[in-house]
Amino acid sequence: MNPRLPAVLDRLLPWTLPGALVLLAAVAWLQLDPDSPVLAAAVEGYPWVLHAVALILAWRFRRSRIAAAVVAVAGVQAAPTLLPDPTPGAFAEAAGIAFPPLFAVVALLRDRPIVSLRGALAPGLVLLALGAAAVVGLRWPGPLSALAERSVSLPGVEWAPTPSILSAAVGGAVVATVTLVRRGPVERGLLWSLAALVLALGSAPASLAFGVHLLASGLILCVAVVEGSYALAYHDELTGLPARRALNQELDRLGGRYTVAMVDVDHFKAVNDEHGHEVGDQVLKMVASRLRKAPGGARAFRYGGEEFTLLFPGKTPDEARPHLEAVREAVKGSTFTVRGPKRRKKGRKSRGKGSSRRRKKLSVTVSLGAAEPREADEAPRTVLERADEALYRAKEKGRNRVET
User: Fold this and answer.
1) Which residue would you say has higher pLDDT here, 43 or 308?
2) Are residues 225 and 252 in the same domain?
3) Residue 311: enclosing H or E segment and its boundaries?
4) Residues 301 and 262: beta-carbon distance below 8 Å
């Protein structure tokens, strides 16, 4: 087995679960059983239940972008019922062109409380797009259909896509890029919800495939809100590491033999006082990135402030010590440049003029203290306290060292 495969899977799974899995299940079910009575019954009322649940969750957890996506999906769902024939088809063509770029704009925004002015921006844009698509579909269905079927010539490309395909490709690429950069569950939800919505708009209005894809889109958005709430509770926003609550649950679940190590950034208060909190945050991110790569099967957690925790399931402190030393050396070997607080964005001519005098190489070290349960049923809190005592000894002996 390729030793890099687990790392690759670890990166790919968050992208595919659960959004891609939900969408794949919907597509596969339609292909295997296109006349399924179960699917026919599901699309009768359940999509509206999902839309309502997703909208309530988005309001409760201040997810304005999810609310905007729900409004888009619900609007598309309602179009075949509210609009007279043949407008639903023209509406779908207009929405297919307008919605992917709109999802890209929504993905680039930040979540706000829905009842605030900024929070209402994303849902408001979607409502305007829905209204515009309905008006265009009602007034100019013929020209719209001609536009939708017209190929768009691209320089250097032999294949000429239709406007809706080009729109889906561009909008999807932007949302995927935002997802790659931010790596958040809400962004992933928007990406796969958009994919399901595009498939729905490409289906005949009011058909089974139309309803199933919208059902999948609503389900993906519901799960995205839940995942986002979980991330807020169990993950540290600054470093991306699991937070103390996740550590406590892991310790309660673990039991048996393990080693827990407390990690503290040396002289962190002095770094904050001298260079500011922005530099302090960069230091914490750097340390977190090194801890995330800790060898020996370690799991890294942000404990709070400048403290982190490493957990080694199935290892004694003696077995974990070489890995702790490797982490200490990795942090010690990492340096970065601190720029002056008055640095301004200037042109190329001003870059480098006097900047070398304002730059400073900042070296960071950490102290580590490790402990293990003395008895099989010893409380995790007690083990953490003894690891903290070992950390204190490392500080007393000069810092940048490991104590067990």
Assistant:
1) 308
2) no
3) strand 307-313
4) no
DSSP bridge partners of 369 = 262, 403
Q: Is 107's pLDDT higher than 50?
A: yes
Q: Is 306 a catalytic residue?
A: yes
The pLDDT assigned to 152 comes to 58
Tokens of 70: 């729900």
Q: Which of 13-17, 206-210, 271-275, 356-360 has the lowest mean pLDDT?
A: 356-360
Q: Give domain status of residue 351, yes or no.
A: no
In the predicted model, is pLDDT for residue 388 greater than 90? yes
Q: Which two tokens stand for residue 220?
A: 């993906």
Q: Do 213 and 69 share a structural domain?
A: yes
Average pLDDT on 59-81 reads: 93
Same domain, 55 and 130: yes
For 59, the domain range is 10-234
Mean pLDDT of 94-102: 91
Q: Is 295 helix (H, G, I), strand (E, B) or coil?
A: coil
d(Cα 326, Cα 277) in Å, to the nearest integer? Answer: 27
Residue from 187, 211, 170 nearest 73 by CA: 211
162 CB burial (10 A radius; 0-12, 13-18, 19+): middle
**Beta carbons within 10 angstroms of residue 209's beta carbon:** 19
204 and 279 within one domain: no
Q: What value does the mean pLDDT take over residues 115-123? A: 91
| Single residue among 234, 254, 277 that ends a domain in this structure | 234
Contact call for residues 281 and 263 (beta carbons, < 8 A): no
236 touches 243 (CB < 8 A): yes
Mean pLDDT of the chain: 85
Contact 368, 317 (CB under 8 A): no
Q: Which of 93, 250, 306, 372 is catalytic?
A: 306
Q: What is the pLDDT of residue 356?
A: 47
Q: Which of 318, 281, 336, 327 lies closest to 300, judged by CA?
A: 327
If asked whether residues 362 and 325 sit together in one domain, one would say yes
Are residues 174 and 131 part of one domain?
A: yes
In a domain, 4, yes or no: no
